[in-house]
């Protein structure tokens, strides 16, 4: 007996499977942004998919193959290292995107998980060559354009180059005293908006506004200079933030955030330093990787040190850094208590990635709960943002005048003030 319906059903199922396989995911949008050190392409997809990314030469191109993917959104215009973009469907159902680039590059790929109603995003960074980066003047550098408009009014940003700190033109600099370098990290950014309040205020916008205000205040403080890990609305990986601070030989690292919970009730500020457990695991990682690191702790390489000596050096450096972090964080928490509620009365310890530098005292400031409607309103207020910046500056300044590193202008200013008194 024959079953014609069975043959039809099988054919239909095969056709449906072929259709599904031909469109497992879709690229619904693309954004290209030029940053000081790289050009970033972001692909917005409906689902994650395997990707094959390779480069071609003569002329230089970057090729992106996405299996069983269709293109819905439009291609952006060329920018930065990318002259032009092309896309076409291949016979096997793959979507091929070709970037015509100005010079040979080595792409770096990152997936961002779906969140806040957005699908997964494939982020492809094209780093600028060292020669191109060094030839770019500070006036020509600009942050990536904001992906969305923000209700928070942020001051104009000042681009930062990752060069060694330069001495300021002052009498103190002539005597070879140096300025303290404070690295300010505006949490989240770009494709990572962070938390959002009920009114739509985004954490990434609040943190950048406060970071820029804090930079203005630190730069106006004698003997201090601030640098930003990001100066616009673009994404910087957590490890890269720490790396930038270490490149700049920062004396302190301050990361700005806005807390969030599902319940709208909690309120108040908190300050965190690195937990002992995370510090131990990071120490083990540094020791394991020391052969590949030229400058791990305070300018001293561990590459040629024995295991015992390397461990002792790292323990001493990390212990001093954690102690300094706790003291500095206490000063900041005390100042935040003057301008609003405090969620935790003591400095907290946690395993935040941005706090893991072994030789830079580091703290993470949760300015308020953006999920609390009243605090969200204050966080979006430029006047309250300025109060937060003032509080953090005062705390940092109090710490450094109590613990002035030798050879700094702050140490000289402290001695001058003591002589006058």
Question: Can you summarize this structure?
Answer:
With 421 residues, this protein is of the alpha/beta class. 33% of the residues lie in helices and 23% in strands.
- The total number of structural domains is 2
| Tally of individual helices | 10
- Unreliable spans are 1-23, 131-174, 286-300
Category from helices, strands and their pairing: alpha/beta
Lateral strand order in the biggest sheet = 11-10-12-15-13-14
Give average pLDDT, whole number: 77
Q: What is the strand content?
A: 15-25%
Per DSSP E runs of 2 or more residues, the count of β-strands stands at 15
**Radius of gyration (Å):** 25 Å
Helix and strand string, N-terminal first? HEEEEEEEEEHHEHEHEEHHEEHHH
Overall geometry comes to globular
Please state the second-level CATH architecture of the largest domain: 3-Layer(aba) Sandwich
CATH class descriptor name of the largest domain:
Alpha Beta
Largest sheet: 6 strands, mixed
N-end to C-end Cα span: 110 Å
How is this structure best described in words?
Helices cover 33% and strands 23% of the residues. The protein has 421 residues and is of the alpha/beta class. It folds into two domains: 23-127, Immunoglobulin-like (Sandwich); 175-420, Aminopeptidase, CATH 3.40.630. It has a six-stranded mixed beta sheet, sandwiched between helices. Strands 5-1-2-9-8 form a five-stranded mixed beta sheet, with no helix packed on it. β6 and β7 (95-101) form a beta hairpin. α4 packs across α9 and α7 (307-336) crosses α9 (382-402). The longest helix is centred in the last third of the chain and has 30 residues, at 307-336. The model is unreliable at 1-23, 131-174 and 286-300 (pLDDT under 50).
């Amino acid at each position: 007996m024959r079953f014609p319906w069975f043959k039809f059903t099988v054919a239909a199922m095969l056709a449906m499977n072929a259709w599904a396989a031909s469109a497992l995911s879709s690229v619904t949008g693309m954004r290209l942004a030029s940053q000081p050190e790289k050009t970033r392409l972001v692909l917005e997809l409906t689902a994650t998919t395997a990707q094959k990314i390779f480069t071609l030469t003569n002329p230089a191109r970057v090729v992106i193959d996405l299996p069983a993917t269709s293109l819905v959104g439009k291609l952006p215009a060329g920018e930065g290292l990318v002259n032009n973009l092309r896309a076409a469907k291949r016979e096997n159902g793959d979507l091929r995107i070709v970037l015509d680039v100005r010079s040979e590059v080595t792409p770096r790929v990152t997936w961002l998980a779906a969140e806040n109603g957005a699908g997964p995003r494939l982020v492809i960074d094209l780093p600028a060559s060292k020669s191109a980066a060094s030839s770019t003047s500070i006036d020509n550098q600009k942050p990536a354009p904001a992906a969305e408009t923000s209700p928070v009014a942020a001051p104009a940003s000042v681009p930062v180059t990752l060069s060694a700190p330069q001495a300021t033109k002052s009498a103190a600099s002539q005597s070879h005293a140096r300025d303290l370098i404070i690295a300010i990290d505006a949490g989240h950014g770009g494709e990572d908006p962070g938390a959002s309040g009920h009114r739509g205020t985004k954490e990434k916008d609040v943190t950048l506004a406060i970071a820029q205000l804090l930079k203005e205040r630190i730069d106006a403080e004698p003997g201090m200079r601030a640098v930003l890990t990001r100066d616009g609305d673009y994404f910087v990986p957590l490890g890269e933030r720490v790396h930038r601070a270490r490149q700049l030989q920062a004396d302190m690292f301050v990361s700005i955030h806005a807390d969030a919970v599902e319940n709208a009730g909690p309120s108040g500020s908190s300050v965190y330093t690195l937990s002992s457990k995370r510090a131990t695991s990071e120490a083990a990682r540094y020791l394991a990787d020391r052969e590949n690191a030229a400058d791990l702790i305070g300018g001293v390489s561990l590459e040629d040190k024995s295991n015992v000596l390397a461990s002792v050096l790292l323990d001493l450096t990390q212990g001093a850094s954690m102690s300094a972090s706790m003291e500095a964080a206490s000063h900041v928490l005390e100042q935040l208590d003057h301008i609003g509620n405090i969620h935790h009365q003591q400095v907290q310890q946690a395993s935040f990635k941005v706090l893991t530098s072994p030789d830079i005292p580091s703290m993470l400031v949760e300015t308020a709960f953006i999920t609390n409607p009243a605090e969200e309103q204050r966080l979006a207020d430029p006047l309250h943002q300025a109060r937060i910046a003032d509080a953090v500056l005062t705390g940092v300044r109090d710490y450094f005048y109590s613990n002035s590193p030798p050879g700094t202008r702050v140490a000289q200013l402290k001695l001058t003030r003591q002589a006058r008194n």
